[in-house]
Amino acid sequence: MTISAVRTHRVSAPLHTPFVTALRRTTTVDTLVVELVDTDGRSGFGEAPQVWQVTGASVGGAQACVRELLGPLLTGRDPDDLVARCAEVQRAVVGNEAAKAAVDVALHDLAARRLGVPLVRLLGGTTLRVPTDVTLAAGDAADLAAAARQRQADGFGVLKLKVGTDAAGDLDRVRAVRSAVGAGVRIRLDANQGWTPREAVRIIRGIEDAGLDVELVEQPVARWDLDGLAWVSDRVSVPILADEAVFGVRDLVEVIRRRAADLVNVKLAKCGGLQPARTLLELAAAHGLGTVVGSMMETQVGIGAAASLVGAYGTTAVADLDAAWWLAWTPVRGGLHYEGATVVLPDAPGLGISGLAEVKMQPRS
């Protein structure tokens, strides 16, 4: 049995609410879905989200990488030799992590389908229910407080507040959200590299002094400034989560060596797929770092893979997998759904995805 075809599908789907961070504002999920087909007609799916400002990945670039290099590499090969196929994908091209992640996940999805088991079982786990936080897009204090109350009413107990767009007002934003939801909801912050080290320490110490009970602060400073990240971590009590600072193993090794953060956020589109993501989680655990599995703005394809990883490996903090919840409609047939603050994976082979909603997409082979 071999891989008979590698197909790519450009997908764009609207969000029900604009997604705003210190790095970007978007009203759509723009992504490339990769489909691997075996000679029995089974399909495995993976996803390469376009995030110019974080990974530099684009739909066009990922599609070129898959069509011109990774697709021909895999066509005619045995998909059951999963470890070897994934290793070949990682070696085939420098960078292009999103494209490699899409193919890596599609290989895993196809392998699970061929065995007739959910992807989480292929990865060594059993749970089909994974808790997630929900993001509050950047805005003024009043808007954030209103959004926080609504998300609390929706059943979310962990709120990720986007800050970093206006350092002078960020403490007031956190205070407004805490006042809106009370003490029973966990609040985490994500500055998306929006603060200087001095601003980060000033704001975080202000949060601590005010007793606002913030769970963690994600990527407070520029991704390249590991010295600054370590400087902040050393001067505050709130745990610091490295996100954009860690794409792959070498980045994580440097964070560990410098003691620059307390936790790491592992994302498939940053590191290149499930195989390297497992290495990152194991490396972090071996060195006493906390872990979160997150995502870019993705569909049920990418979120399903990330949730399956969490279901098998677990994390020390609640996962950040609300991206598909933001979709106004889904371009995917089958796959996961949300029940309040829980990602519910289907009890079906692989990711449980039967295809894409073709009227909403622009396919290319």
UniProtKB/TrEMBL annotation:
Pfam families: MR_MLE_C, MR_MLE_N. InterPro entries: Dipeptide_epimerase (IPR034603), Enolase-like_C_sf (IPR036849), Enolase-like_N (IPR029017), Enolase_C-like (IPR029065), Mandel_Rmase/mucon_lact_enz_CS (IPR018110), Mandelate_racemase_C (IPR013342), Mandelate_racemase_N_dom (IPR013341). GO terms for biological process: amino acid catabolic process. Substrate binds at residues 24, 135, 160, 295, 297, 320, 322. Binds 1 Mg(2+) ion per subunit. GO terms for molecular function: metal ion binding; racemase and epimerase activity, acting on amino acids and derivatives. Keywords: Isomerase, Magnesium, Metal-binding. Residues 141-239 form the Mandelate racemase/muconate lactonizing enzyme C-terminal domain. Mg(2+) binds at residues 190, 218, 243. Its cofactor is Mg(2+). Its EC number is 5.1.1.-. The active site is at 162 (proton acceptor), 267 (proton acceptor). Belongs to the mandelate racemase/muconate lactonizing enzyme family. PANTHER family: O-SUCCINYLBENZOATE SYNTHASE, O-SUCCINYLBENZOATE SYNTHASE-RELATED. This is Dipeptide epimerase. It comes from Micromonospora cremea.
